[in-house]
Amino acid sequence: MEALLDKFLRYVSVDTQSCEESESQPSSAKQLVLLQMLTDELRAMGIQAELDEYGYVMAAIPSNIDKAVPAVGFIAHVDTSPDAPGAGVKPQIIPDYDGGDVALKGVDGLFLKPSEFPELLAHKGETLVTTDGTTLLGADDKAGVAEIMYAAQYVMEHPEFKHGEIKIGFTPDEEIGRGVVKFDVKKFGADYAYTMDGGEKGELEFENFNAAAATIRIQGRNVHPGYAKGKMKNAMRIAIELNDLLPVDQKPEYTEGYEGFFHLISFNGTVEEATISYIIRDHSMSLYEHKKQVMQQCVDFINQKYGEGTATLNLRHQYYNMRKEVEPHYHIVEKAMKAMEMAGVKPKVQPIRGGTDGANLSFMGLPCPNIFAGGLNFHGKMEFATVENMESAAQVILNILALYAE
What we know:
Layout: H1 4-12, H2 31-44, E1 48-51, E2 57-61, E3 72-77, E4 92-94, E5 102-103, E6 111-112, E7 128-130, H3 139-157, E8 166-171, H4 185-188, E9 192-198, E10 203-205, E11 210-219, H5 235-245, E12 261-269, E13 273-282, H6 285-306, E14 311-319, H7 323-326, H8 331-342, E15 348-349, H9 357-363, E16 370-372, E17 375-376, E18 384-386, H10 387-405
Parallel strand pairs: 3-8, 3-9, 9-16, 10-15
Antiparallel strand pairs: 1-2, 2-8, 4-7, 5-6, 7-18, 10-16, 11-13, 11-14, 12-13, 17-18
Helix pairs in contact: 1-3, 3-10, 5-6, 8-10
């Protein structure tokens, strides 16, 4: 078998950033390069697989047992976040990590430090995979992709391994909230599924944020600064003023656990015109709706102060908390917990401070908790993963299959 690490390194070498401004599906054609690669690799293993026009890879491995058991799916997304560069990824491999600072050698003076990221210390002695400081790594979610592919290869090369029907899905555009908008759940054919899209080893999640995206356009008025008194409306300053109206303590850097936030993700502008974009998150539906109302109130205040039409809000729902769709099928969570224990991993059930394709899939009739994939510090140049984490995740996939076969 090809080593799990080798699969992961091959996959992260392909630039697959999604693009929020694009209206196409998938949002960037370069995602199709990896999606086609995965389709070809699955077929080479002897697995029936297809890539459809929307960028979904669906594959199936028939059951090899003589009793009816649920068809179980495993899903991962191939796109990487637009929040950091994703082209030309150059991973660094650090065997037997000693717990010290790790130089990210693509940028002079840049280090991945336990003093800033203390979770590194939990991985002393393991094989660390980091970025070189110029890009993200792509463990979100190519670690999950590699783990599913590794498990599929194991199943095909070990016919003595007993399992029911296995469904495999790879999706584009998860990072921009459009990962499964055209995913055909009925065609996929799984009774239950798991996304391999979590972080640290042991994470198991079946509740996530309710999520919306907000884009606000500010129309200013430019006048020569020497003659601007009483006439100029500086769109950038107005945008800053609007941002300052939002609750200071409800920013990502000040929140944890079930606490929601307003997250400013982009700011572009001139005196004449500015655009600011946010993501809005909360686990509580009532607090989520309240946050959307607060955003509207801020826009209304700006329009009252500077004139109607100064601020225009485009508010878009992205996904809901999947808890109420998964909880009636809690046995799938219990299966995952047992599978982790069989792999020597202590389960840590917690809310996702984000979202996965599994949230939308759960509302589409496919209950779909989320399992760790083994990476940390996603969406930035400080991202890292460990080989041991990824190996544990692949073993959890195989253990889940074995448990359903029983």
